[in-house]
Design goal:
There is one protein chain. The protein is mainly beta and 510 residues long. The chain has 2 helices and 20 strands. A 16-stranded antiparallel barrel has the order 3-4-5-6-7-8-9-10-11-14-15-16-17-18-19-20. A two-stranded antiparallel ribbon has the order 12-13. The longest helix is centred in the N-terminal third of the chain and has 38 residues. The protein starts with a helix and ends with a strand. 27% of the residues are buried. The N terminus is likely disordered.
Length: 510
């Protein structure tokens, strides 16, 4: 644009020089004409010629000034700060009067409207995200899928068939609004049942106080709170059958004492053991809570830094009906339902929840280098009624699980991150981990035979399992496992077949 103004200035200067030269030439010719005696009408002709040239120059100047005015107006519209004076060109006020109100009286200003910085877009092992330059707004997209296989050595008619199936196929949407408001939506399309597993909003007031509202995991069982993609074995153990899965409610949580103490407490609709809900079936609410202590996390006792001990629990008043009993059904890893209450659809013959229901779960984990240990005990106490008979059921379960990373990486509650991701070309094979577990679940003996049928329900289930995990990288994992569950009958002569399962999983997450 500066070159255009220079060209206009050059043309104006050139026209002025032409006019001056013509005027000087005319004046020089005047004495010569007088000496030659050609005076008949000479003055009048010269004046007429000069006037004609001046008119031509005026027209040319008007044309150039109109072009200058249009260019100046265009710059005013686009930049909002420019003046003809700043360009070093003097123009007549009559020509630029149309744009005089738009042109500033100050010289050309270099400042221009600042262009906002572009959003930051990233892609990596933890998914895809886009966020504002200041980090106040963020949108994240993640996905996880588990393609499983389950094969029973001695499959019976009551067990699920041997098959490959999608255990999880879960798109995940996360985000941040105004830095302190986070949202999380996890949907699942596996097993032919589309559903919303998680849908909640977190308001972060401080590290010591976070408010969560929506549908999410109840803060009771330590293994239930662990991500399904971080499990050292294929499925969660028997104690998880006794704690709430996902519930709708309001929760306060946070970290205290420099991270040594964490807590979570909330009010929820309430669900039966091992269940999830999308709404309440009665007017009652449950109070759920979880307290975890890491006493050596930031001390000189580094060998104990990975020790966590705590307790979870819930308390509520539950009322069921023949159409919705509000009572659980307990299942094995192979999805065999080994305990259920009697139900014939009638008020007299169906067992329903009627009264107080509370849970108590001491729990803990320990990680030191490649070694990992997790243990929990769950007691679920529920008042029930069948017709005019009532009782208090006390079911209990416990587990002990160990894991060890053969390739030396650190074990953790969140899983293993391979030091050398899978790349055979350079001799890298990822990380390998072995895991073992023993678990037991005992139903209250008082449940038989009035509240549970001893011919259909077992008194106790005992399961042991062994697994091998191959972490190709942070996002891809293969699992090979064997699990065996033995059942103890509640009445003499009643036996149940032992469940023996070989399992495999291909997992991808980002």
């Amino acid at each position: 644009m500066k070159q255009n103004w220079r060209l206009v200035g050059f043309i104006l200067a050139f026209e002025i020089l032409i006019g001056i030269a013509a005027t000087g030439s005319a004046r020089a010719q005047q004495p010569m004409a007088a000496n030659s005696g050609a005076k008949s009408g000479g003055d009048a002709e010269r004046l007429a010629a000069l006037e004609e040239k001046i008119k031509v120059m005026e027209k040319r100047l008007e044309f150039l000034e109109s072009m200058l005015a249009q260019s100046a107006a265009s710059l005013v519209a686009s930049n909002g700060a420019i003046s003809a004076t700043a360009l070093g060109i003097q123009t007549r006020p009559s020509v630029l009067s149309a744009v005089a109100g738009s042109l500033p009286s100050s010289p050309l200003q270099s400042a221009s409207p600042q262009v906002p910085a572009a959003p930051f877009v990233s892609a990596g092992p933890e998914g895809f995200s886009m966020q504002s330059p200041d980090g106040d707004f963020r949108l994240g997209i993640r996905y996880q899928v588990q393609a499983d296989g389950r094969f029973a050595v001695n499959r019976n008619e009551e067990a699920d068939p041997n098959s490959f199936y999608l255990r999880r196929t879960q798109p995940i949407l996360t985000g941040t609004l105004y830095r302190r408001f986070n949202f999380h939506v996890l949907t699942d399309f596996s097993l032919g049942r589309p559903r919303v597993n998680d849908a909640y909003i977190d308001t972060i007031i401080s590290p010591a106080l976070k408010v969560r509202v929506g549908k999410f995991k109840g803060p009771v069982g330590i293994e239930r709170l662990r991500s399904g993609t971080a499990l050292p074995l294929m499925e969660r153990a028997l104690p998880t059958q006794l704690v709430p899965n996902r519930d709708i409610g309001f929760q306060l949580s946070g970290d205290l004492a420099d991270g040594r103490l964490s807590y979570a407490v909330g009010v929820f609709d309430g669900v039966p053991d091992g269940s999830s809900t999308d709404g309440n079936t009665d007017d009652h609410k449950d109070l759920d809570g979880h307290l975890m202590l890491q006493p050596f996390v930031k001390t000189s006792f580094t060998s104990l830094a990975g020790l966590s001990v705590g307790v979870g629990g819930s308390y509520g008043d539950v009322e069921g009906s023949p159409s919705f009993t509000n009572l659980p059904v307990y299942s094995s890893v192979g999805q065999r339902e080994f305990f259920e209450y009697r139900s014939d659809g009638t008020l007299a013959g169906t067992v329903v929840a009627k009264g107080i229901h509370y849970r108590l779960s001491p729990q803990g984990t320990y990680y030191a280098g490649p070694f990992g240990l997790m243990s929990e005990y769950v007691q679920s106490v529920q008042e029930v009624r069948r017709g005019s008979a009532s009782a208090t059921m006390n079911h209990a379960s416990w587990q002990l699980m160990t894991s060890y990373v053969l390739t030396g990486e650190n074990g953790s509650y969140a899983g293993v991150n391979p030091a050398k991701p899978f790349d055979p070309a350079v001799g890298n094979w990822g990380a390998f981990e072995v895991a073992t577990r023993y678990a037991s679940l005992s139903a209250d003996q008082e449940a038989f035979p009035l509240f549970a049928d001893p011919g259909k329900s077992a008194r106790q289930a005992k399961a042991w399992s062994l697994g091998l995990n191959w972490y190709l990288n942070r996002n891809v994992k293969l699992v090979f496992a064997y699990e065996q569950t033995d059942f103890e009958g509640a009445a003499p002569g009643v036996t149940f077949d032992t469940e023996k399962l070989f399992q495999q999983r291909f997992q991808l997450r980002f």
